[in-house]
Amino acid sequence: MVIYIAIAFALKCIDLIHLIAVQCTMDMFLIDWEPPKFNRNVNNVNPSSNTDIQLSSRSQSLGKYNMINDVADDLEARPKKELRSSLPPSSISNQMEDTGISVWRTIYVANEWNEIQTYRKTSCLITIACVLILMQVIGLENLASSDAKSNIVLNSYEYQSPQSRIFRIALILSIFSVIGIIQWLFSITLWERCFSDKLRSFADLCSVANVSVFLFAQSNFGYYIHGHSPTGRSDVDLGGITQMLSIENEGIAPKRGITPDSNDHTYRMALPSGLRQTFNRLYTPLLNLNLNTDKYGKHASPQAITNEVYHNINRYLKRFVSRVSL
């Protein structure tokens, strides 16, 4: 019996190690869909200028060295020179200035993701407490005796056969299984429908925060939570959030799915091999910052390189999800 328990414990440890290894080898990226915000510079406004300013792509300055204009430049096998400026022409930049986008939405989504990783539909505390009550208080442990006519209530005047450890372990495992199934059914049929569903709440949070979760489980397989807000923005004040939620509640805004007529925003993905190769190529500069600092120039700090890599990957995955030609 001790050998069986030791083998089961060893196999469970291997299963936990495998689970931790899978979680550590997954690559996750949080896609920020928030468009840039520009304020008009009243000191340098040219009234005769009627230039149409496109707000669809973010211009993030990295000091003297700014992020690349097009992700396609990273996909071509050619030497990379110093980072070119992606700021608008001087006549436009004098009139408009980028006020930046808050990163706290992405940080909050990442924190919630870490919290739901340990979420289970069953409670270990409730399961163990129920097992102890059934075994010790109610007396189900008396059924683990070797006697064929064992009862829950013992009679002190009758012969009591010794308990079998095999029967006792089988009884405990059976109680564990029954209680776990009951908790699971209660969770999916009543609790999640009437009270709280953490997984669906997390998907709704992504939509409110305008942040999507792109998860590479394997090279050609992954999961995706579409968090693109139907109203297009989420980095606003309380009044703006209230107005956008009311618009969505009234059905004026599109639905939360990838397509405007779909509410499905959780997906399993079969990915092309080229996507992962491109992702790795864009992510490579972060693996050896010292070498890339010399490559990008003396004035490019590790923080600037990290910022540039983030925006390149963010822009590339947004174009992939939006099915824009890469």
Walk me through what this model shows.
One of its GO terms (biological process) is cilium assembly. Pfam families: Meckelin. With about 325 residues, the chain is of the alpha+beta class. The protein folds into two domains: about 1-35 and about 100-270, no CATH class; about 270-325. It is built from eleven helices and six strands. It has helices at about 1-25, 70-75, 90-95, 105-115, 125-135, 165-195, 200-210, 240-250, 275-285, 290-295, 300-320; strands spanning about 25-30, 40, 95-100, 210-215, 220-225, 265-270. It has a four-stranded antiparallel beta sheet, sandwiched between helices. Strand 4 and strand 5 form a beta hairpin. The chain starts with a helix and ends in a 5-residue tail after the last helix.
The secondary-structure class comes to alpha+beta
Got a strand count? 6
Radius of gyration: 29 Å
In whole angstroms, how far apart are the ends?
61 Å
Query: Roughly what is the average pLDDT, rounded to an integer?
Result: 77
Low-confidence stretches: 44-94
Shape: elongated
The number of helices is: 11
* Strand neighbour order, sheet with most strands: 1-4-5-6
Tell me the strand percentage band.
5-15%
Helical content class? 40-55%
Largest sheet: 4 strands, antiparallel
Question: What's the structural domain tally?
Answer: 2
Compressed to H and E, one letter per element, the order equals: HEEHHEHHHHEEHEHHH
